[in-house]
Amino acid sequence: MKYDFTAIEKKWQEKWLEEKPFTAVTGDKTREKFYGLIEFPYPSGQGLHVGHARPFTAMDIICRKKRMQGYNVLFPIGFDAFGLPTENYAIKNHIHPAIVTKQNIANFTKQLHMLGYSFDWDRVVDTTDPSYYKWTQWIFLQLFKKGLAYKASMPVNWCTSCKCVLANEEVVEGVCERCGSEVIRKEKSQWMLAITKYADRLIDDLDDVDYIERVKIQQRNWIGRSTGAEVTFKATTGEDIVVYTTRPDTLFGATYMVLSPEHALVKQWLDAGKLANADEDDRPSMFARIKAQYLKAREDRKAKKGHRAAAKATQETGAPADSAPSDSSFEQENPQQR
Ligand SMILES: [Zn+2]
């Protein structure tokens, strides 16, 4: 017998939407609880990819099994929906990011339904919803009150043309991915969370949690605890330079030290004219070189893409690949979705 998935899956997915068999029951004291949680996806314009489907399917199987075993299962879905790609798309296309986000969530929702996951659709979390982020703001205030949220000056990537901070991924070969302009390192006041205050507990308490060993190792390496000392060196200009080292016993061998270009002392010495070789700063010429390389690479990529598209067009006929189906009908079917 042929499995007619379009007919069969559509039929059951509609029935699930109607009868809500996957809804967790609040206050049910008769059954044991089970909480299945997946990492909420970022609703990008590209839609779901296999990297979503793989873990979602695994947890969906577990949740369905637990329900069959009589558990009261909470398996929520949500959208980690604030993000740079949406912002950039909104800037580029002059659409308000809230609209883009709404459209992307509607598309993701439709796709998740098509995959037949047993999420509790009455418990959808959207991080851009004020009723959600009022709580992250509340948490931030608690951290602030306890001195765990603070402002600090940090070097950031600054596009001289877009006049905004760029993530590391947006800096391609030293220039802005968006416009190809020079990216400089700039000191900017940023909000920081003092998670390092909990570094020891984060490491020590890994012994108490039921994670696979590989994940525990990753955590330990990420936190990267090391034991050492801060040593103060005296510069010939009179200032103290504090250096952290895990091997103070090797200090006798120190012959020189390197300060990063962003170091406050470098700027101080530059301004005071104390750096003998200050004129050797060749950053302007370096950026000109990098920009030329970037523009050439971009042209090459464009040429390649054009070539591929032309080759494809000769092989295929029919609708263009980017003609995505409309989401509007789906939104009406699901009034509980925003
Ligand atoms: Zn730029």
Your description of this structure?
- By secondary structure, the chain is α/β, with parallel strands linked by helices.
- 42% of the residues lie in helices and 16% in strands.
- The chain has ten helices and eleven strands.
- It has a three-stranded antiparallel β-sheet with strand order 6-5-9. Strands 1-2 form a two-stranded parallel ribbon. It has a two-stranded parallel sheet with strand order 3-4.
- The longest helix has 33 residues.
- The protein is extended, with a radius of gyration of 27 Å.
- The C terminus is likely disordered.
- The structure holds zinc ion (ZN).
Q: What's the total helix number?
A: 10
| Proportion of beta-strand residues | 15-25%
Average pLDDT score: 84
**Percentage of helical residues?**
40-55%
* SS-based class: alpha/beta
Ligands and ions found:
zinc ion
Number of strands: 11
Termini, distance in Å?
40 Å
Strand order of the largest sheet: 6-5-9
The largest β sheet comes out as: 3 strands, antiparallel
Approximate shape: extended
Q: What gyration radius follows from the Cα positions, in whole Å?
A: 27 Å
The low-confidence runs, each spanning 5 or more residues with pLDDT under 50, are 314-338
Q: Please trace the helix and strand order, writing H or E for each element.
A: HEHEEHHEHEEEEEHHEEHHH
Q: Oligomeric status of the shown chains?
A: single chain
